[in-house]
Amino acid sequence: MEPLDGLDDVDWTLLSHAYGPALDVPGLLRRLASPTITADELEFVLEEFQGMFSQLCTLFSSTLAAIPFFLAILHASTTSNHVRSQILNLLIHAIVPDPAPLPACKVDIKALRDRIHKLGSPRFVEKHWQERYNTDDVPDEVARQKHEEDLVWRMEDDFLRLRAYDAIAIGIPKYCTLLNDSTASPRLRAMAIFALAWFPDEIDAIQPSLFDVLDQEQIPIVRATACIALSLLQAPQASETSSKRMNDTAISRRLLALFDENGVQDVIRFSCALGLAFAGIAEEKHIVELLRKVTDKTYLYEHDPRNRYYRYSEALDFPFVFSLTRAAMHPLNAIKGCDHPYVPLALAKALVSQSSDVSPFELIFTTMTIAFDGRCPTKMPPFEELTELQKTVIRALVQIEDLTWSRKILHKWGLPSEPKELKKFTQTEKIVIIFPLNVVVESGPMLSFRGSIVVRGGLKRGLATGASSFRIPLIDFSKFQHGSAEDKKQTADKIVGAFKESGFIYLSNHGIPASAVENAFAKSTEFFRLPSETKDRLAWADPRSNRGYVQIGRERVTQASDAAEIAALRATAPDCKETMEIGRDWDSVWPNQWPAESDAPLFKSTMLSFFNDCHVLHTKVLRAIALGLRLDEGFFEDKIHEQSHNLRLLSYPPIKRALLDGEGQARAGAHSDYGTMTLLFQDDVGGLEAQNPHTGQFVPAAPIPGTIVVNVGDLMQRWSNDVLRSTLHRVVAPPATPINANEAVTRERKSIAFFCNPNFTQEIACLPNCGAPKYPAVSTEEYIVGRLTATYS
Ligand SMILES: O=C(O)CCC(=O)C(=O)O
Ligand SMILES: [Fe+2]
User: Fold this and answer.
1) What are the residue ranges of helices labelled H in 38-133?
2) Cβ atoms within 10 A of the Cβ of 247, count?
3) Res 523 pLDDT > 60
4) 759 vs 535, 584, 675, 756, 782, CA distance in Å?
5) Which one of the ligands is nearest to 751 CA?
């Protein structure tokens, strides 16, 4: 049979993908099946499919229709190894939006089947209607039908995912035969193993094939991939009771034995440790193995896909992980310092010696979390009341040069972020870091704590594998506000799709008049031109208020020319910017800090009106998010109406190029925002960049006139159970203009950010339709105040 028999029997005009009707799908499939496809053409075709099918993490009718043809091409003898690997990658991304080596990333097929089954049960629609409207009445026929349509629409994603899952599962025997097909490349074998990991219901059929890989495979990374796949296969689905014992399964026994095998390669030992951590049965030696990867940049360096990222290449790296370090970090996060004190100590040591490739921000967070046994005290006790472990960790923090973007974390723990203040807190004039346990991870810990770690919670940031392109889509919001019902749903899906994938969108036709934005920028510019003394009188004073003028970077930096002075300034003030923070104006406790009307005419009224415009737009975007998550459109309304937002005017002064050339220097270092979402208005200078979570690369979010950049914040990521992504971003300097033979100056930049928050008393517990909760519920206040207090000190 030709692989594409039947392609023309499908009416592709009736089907759609992310970019509209699926008319181009048959042509692309033909090109993919052609044995003479060129490398460039293949790259194009794959990128198209990637975008259409999995870019938005949403399934489309054409995805389903294309699956049998993908399987046929996979089977065809004329298909190259490379195309086969790529097909496997596409197929798995269609059913597992974020395939990473974590049980939490599995699709919960059992729950999916249950949900769909329930919809068909007698009188389900009526019962659901009665619950929804809290009534004992019976819906009339029109109401019933409308409710049923609505339910079906809400479950469309579930239907498609389950059908896609079943369609892709048909290929399992084929994926298994690839494992000992002598013509299959190592990369293809690794991809086939990766594909097999997502079908726990078929574990009986798959396990023997993967055990064969452990016995016979020669290439270490392929064997290592099998270790991870096996542990994922046996990890319980979220809806199953986690009491399923995994310490005495054939798989766990295999991994335990392999870990200890003489002469086994590091990458296999590491993968066994990861697998045992999933199973909740990691012992100290396994934890140490994971710790080693986090604290030693060079360990397994050559195996880390992050260091050898080739798009669509046949390079042999882990199909599962984007970064081995991040994979290792995840189980470590669940450890308690009282059980395993060597873990936070080793992490603190890595922080000070900069021997980890994890950002200080994340490393501090994890180190502190572990040192405080997973709890963040509501009030930091006096230093002398802390445990020795906690003292050592905090003393280590004093040694870190750049704490700028770690302020949020330090404040969360009630610690001052100024190095001087922090030093004072530790009461040691001369800071000597003592690592009392002489933590040398390489040679194993000095203490012998026995215990296991349980993998809890989810993935902080995506570890999606494979070649995923990063787009910040431009979305026409008028289609949501004024379009047909269908337009509205599609726009909501696009927004949610993009928030799942990149966490960033551009919004055009957003409804805030251009004149309002222009006025806000004009008044902001006038404000920052005021003399320093005038601005200083409005100084930001209290973190709970989070209102007022903040001068962080200091204009001094731009004038400094003496090398020693520059170095000193760099150490203390890497971010060169000043800001003005404005909150809701009717707060009885925390008044805004307004300049006198005579100093800044119309500043207050302009900003208050802009605050309101932004609040209104943010409620509309949240309506779109609600729809896109298949919630009631008004779901968020009563959770956000108190307007606990923060309007921030930003001004980045012109700066000599040399000052921004140093390593890590940026106008604003990489960070994520902490609220639900941020509306960002920027001038035409540029410099904003968002991090592609798949590759770690920063991608410019260049200014597009008339649009607003909207990004998801940490609180929304947590609220949505990691379904929506809070993406790291930063501001770098655009090209500089030479001012003389030796020096160049970068233009000044203005931006306005509107940070949106829920009501402070709102409980943030996993939203409906977002999977099994990974995080305990917290109130907004509990979550944010620690971070809000931290904005600047
Ligand atoms: O100035 C910008 O464009 C971004 C500022 C930002 O990301 C922030 O203040 O959180
Ligand atoms: Fe930001």
Assistant:
1) 39-49, 61-75, 81-95, 109-119, 124-132
2) 12
3) yes
4) 30, 12, 11, 10, 12
5) 1
Look at residue 466 in the predicted model and tell me its pLDDT.
30
Q: What tokens does 50 get?
A: 């990637």
Percent helix, strand, coil in the chain, to 5, is 50, 10, 45
CA of 605 to the centre of ligand 2 (A): 25
Mean local confidence (pLDDT), 695-701: 81
Would you give the distance in Å from CA 179 to the centre of its chain? 32
Task: Kindly identify the ligand whose nearest atom is closest to the C-alpha of 701.
Answer: 1
At residue 131, the pLDDT reads 87
Ligand at minimal distance from the CA of 731 is 1
Ligand 1, residues 729, 746, 749, 792: which to mutate, most atoms within 8 A of Cβ? 729
Q: What pLDDT is attached to residue 608?
A: 94
Mutate to test the pocket of ligand 1, among 652, 672, 680, 681 (most ligand atoms within 8 A of CB): 680
ipTM for the whole complex: 0.99
Per-residue exposure over 124-157, b if at least 16 CB sit within 10 Å of its own CB, e if not: ebbebbeeeeeeeeebeeeeeeebbebbeebbeb
Kindly report the three-state secondary structure assignment for every residue of 478-528.
HHHHHCCHHHHHHHHHHHHHHHHHCCEEEEECCCCCHHHHHHHHHHHHHHH
Sign of the C-alpha dihedral computed for residues 178, 179, 182 and 183 taken in this order: positive
CA 730 – ligand 1 centroid, Å = 7
> Is residue 17 within 8 Å of residue 52, measured between CB atoms?
yes
Ligand 2 midpoint to CA 671 (Å): 6
At 574, the pLDDT band (50, 70, 90 cuts) reads very low
CB 69 within 8 A of CB 7: yes
CA distance 572 to 419: 9
Per the structure block, which two tokens stand in for 397?
Answer: 């923090």
Distance 673 CA to ligand 1 centre (A): 9
714 CA from centroid of ligand 1 (Å): 15
Contacts for 683 with CB less than 8 Å, ≥ 6 apart: 521, 703, 749, 750, 751
Give ligand 1 pocket residues (Cβ under 6 A): 648, 650, 668, 673, 680, 682, 688, 729, 731, 751, 753
Q: Which two tokens stand for residue 22?
A: 């699926």
* Backbone φ and ψ of 557, nearest 5°: -55, -35
- What ligand is nearest to the CA atom of residue 668? 1
Residue with CA at minimum distance from ligand 1 atom 9: 753
Mean pLDDT, range 714-735, rounded to an integer: 88
* Nearest ligand 1 atom, CA 577: 1
Mean pLDDT of 408-423: 82
Distance CA 765, CA 214 (A): 41
Q: State the distance from the centre of ligand 1 to the C-alpha of 742, rounded, in angstroms.
A: 30
SS3 443: helix
pLDDT at 742: 66
- In sequence order, which ranges of 333-445 are alpha helices (DSSP H)? 342-353, 360-371, 388-398, 407-412, 419-425
Residues 6+ apart with CB under 8 A from 441: 288, 291, 292, 295, 296, 342, 346
CA of 788 to the centre of ligand 1 (A): 15
pLDDT higher than threshold 70 for residue 242: no
Q: What is the DSSP string of 523-565?
A: HHHHHHHS-HHHHHTTB---TTT--EEEE-S-THHHH--SHHH
3-state class of 658 per DSSP?
helix
CA-nearest residue, atom 10 of ligand 1: 673
Q: How far apart are CA 110 and CA 240, in angstroms?
A: 8
Range in 83-92, 170-179, 555-564 the model is least confident about: 555-564
